[in-house]
Amino acid sequence: MKKQWRHSSFCIAVTAAALAASSAFAQSVDTARIDAGGQNDWLTYHGSYRSYHYSPLAQINAGNVANLGVAWIHIPGRSTRGLQSMPLAADGVLYYTGSYSRTFALNGATGEVIWSYFPELDEALIARQTHSPYNRGVALGEGKVFVGTMDGRLIALDAKTGKVAWDTKLIDSQKLTVGFTGAPLYAKGTVIIGAQGGEWPGRGPIFAVDAASGKKKWEFLTVAGTDEAMKTWGNDSWRTGGGGGWMPGTYDSESNTVLWGTANPAPLYDWSGADYKTQGARPGDNLYTSSVLGLDIDTGKLKFYHQELPHDAWDFDSAVGEFVMLDRDGQKYVVHPNKSGYIFVYDRNLGLKNVWRITQNSNFVKNIDAKTGELIGRRDFPAGKVAEPLCPHISGGVSWNAGSYNPKTGLYYKLGQEWCMTLEVQKTTPIVAPQAQLNIGADFKIAPPPGGEIYGHLDARDPITGAKKWEVRFPEPPLGSVLSTGGSLVFVPDSRGTVHAYDADSGTELWNHGDGTGHQGGIMSYAVNGKQYIAVVAGFGGMASDDYAPTFGGVYKSMPRDDGALVVYSLK
Amino acid sequence: MRLNWKTTAWLPLILVAPFPVSFIPARAQQPAAPAPGNEQLDVGQLFATTCGWCHSDGGRAAGKGPQLMDSKKDDDVLHNRIKNGKNGAMPAFGAMFSDAQIDEIVKYIRALKPHEG
């Protein structure tokens, strides 16, 4: 008994010391530390600014992954439309969010709640939103945890206590409908967050806020944000152009530049026909929608950009947040997946170096020129029924969730989605009052690829050339993020609810485990007191996954769309 | 199967009356659109604008939301669902549309038929 008491006391002391250390270290999460990535932590949405979604931890590896089991589970509650966030970890504390921006700080070893924060939201507003109320995660920096809300606010919480440090209203969501679902990015004393947009008639702002005070530093409008861009919107269509930047990008410390992807223009499907420069709902290229931007982090000034899809008429935006920064043969590259399934390779100034495609079924263009980026054989529809199904489906050739680059194998592990849609393009009028409404421009329906079935695939590819080393197929496209590790493992949480671990070199499946419901969010790894953990959010429902029950039936018929859990694995 | 909203022309009134400044630029996208008050809007267009995000093929097929054609739900249930929404599944449009306008949407749903051919 005495021994046990002593043991318990020791544990308490160790725990207290660990938490004290965590609190102290949490304050030291800064730009340099996020840039370096770190062995045991996951300090920003994409792991580090290099956006690898890779953990160097190797305790869990191909030789012992069969012994992986659940260490602990956390239920956030009120998981309307499932869980979609990317957990972060700093010094043994795990931070993550659920729907309605519920924010938690948990002991990374035990799951014990250190603090929780449930913001008081404008629930009446949220009840009128379609893309709501999920949340995709937090940012860490300067001893604070930053989280966006669906009613247009960015909130800073004390990382030790969860108490509100500041609460800044950035968007008039009552009028514009959109808010923040994406995680913020912290860098250099600044918190950056982009608004939802795309199909809503607005101008899609990206905001920078001072991390210490909560005061807005700058705002960049992704629709006609410069004089040059204004000229690319005929008939004043910029006023209802859509845009936005709803996933976190990253920060290039060498050039002091924020890299950010932007959403599509509205209406999604234009009726211009081939002469999109002068005809249709939004004549012109529609800058800076469906583009990647380089913004000066101090001023918000546009330094450089590349519009991946000029006059996007297919809702294949560039809002995917991955900017995989890697070096090869003395060249510095940035790899950015476009929702269409084309993967763009740039230099650090977003000068185009290559384009390759991950999908098999794609016909919105015949090709994209790998040197110039020109869309070759693009399909611009007039109003009316479109004869040949459009591929990929509106949910994209890739998800907004992230792939993973493993510097040990040199391979980029990325999920591709094979599906199409029938559509009839229709002229619409933007609805901007009393509250902005979606502006689609078509009736559509999901469809299988010509001559085949819908499926998804995990590819192991060279990130620069796109050369494929191996592929694993799934009967339904997985929607979650991918994690690769220093243990030569690739983890894929799939839509049916199973987490798979593959050999990073061969694609051989080494382990799997059911989480009880589908995945559509983040997965990451961290370590506490020398023990490695894998954390994944489970919980289905939302823009892509809501199509699964009517399309695939089976397990999706009974899969809840208002439930979820954070599941954390370790070696038994 | 589109029902013209000749009698009510409600949408332009909603758009113009409270926020005329916001509406005018929006209309500027489509110079061919008729003047407010005389506009003929149909629910079919409303589906291609907003509702079709979830209710596929103009409401004829299940998508993110259920198929509306041949719905077994009675008119009151449909009306209330459009007006009040369903938590986490369907937005509430009670602040956007009047009861009479929602009734027109229900009529459209009741009249839905498969595409010919």
Describe the structure.
- The complex is a heterodimer of chains A (572) and B (117).
- In chain A, strand 20 and strand 21 (342-347) form a beta hairpin.
- The two termini of chain A are 27 Å apart.
- Chain A has 572 residues and is mainly beta.
- In chain A, the strands form 10 sheets. A 5-stranded mixed β-sheet of chain A has the order 1-32-33-34-35, with no helix packed on it. A 4-stranded antiparallel β-sheet of chain A has the order 2-38-37-36, with no helix packed on it.
- The radius of gyration of chain B is 15 Å and the shape is globular.
- Chain B starts with 9 loop residues before the first helix and ends in a 6-residue tail after the last helix.
- The chains are: A mainly beta (572), B mainly alpha (117).
- At the A-B interface, strand 29 of A face helix 1, helix 2, helix 3 and helix 4 of B.
Nutshell version of this structure?
The complex is a heterodimer of chains A (572) and B (117). By secondary structure, chain A is mainly beta. Chain A is built from six helices and 38 strands.
What's the main sheet of chain A like? 5 strands, mixed
Biggest sheet, spatial arrangement of strands of chain A = 1-32-33-34-35
For the residues shown, what is the average pLDDT of chain B? Answer: 72
Number of helices of chain A: 6
Radius of gyration of chain A: 22 Å
Give the percentage of residues in beta strands of chain A: 25-35%
The proportion of residues in beta strands of chain B is under 5%
* Spatial separation of the terminal alpha carbons of chain B: 14 Å
The run of helices and strands of chain B is: HHHHHH
The N- to C-terminal Cα distance of chain A equals 27 Å
What's the total number of strands of chain A? Answer: 38
Percent of residues in helices of chain B comes to: 40-55%
> What share of residues of chain A is helical?
under 10%
Question: Low-confidence spans of chain B: pLDDT under 50, at least 5 residues?
Answer: 1-40
Biggest interface reads: A-B, 48 and 43 residues
Structural class, from helix and strand content of chain A?
A: mainly beta
The assigned structural class of chain B equals mainly alpha
Shape of chain A: globular
Query: What characterizes the major β-sheet of chain B?
Result: none
Rg estimate of chain B, integer Å: 15 Å
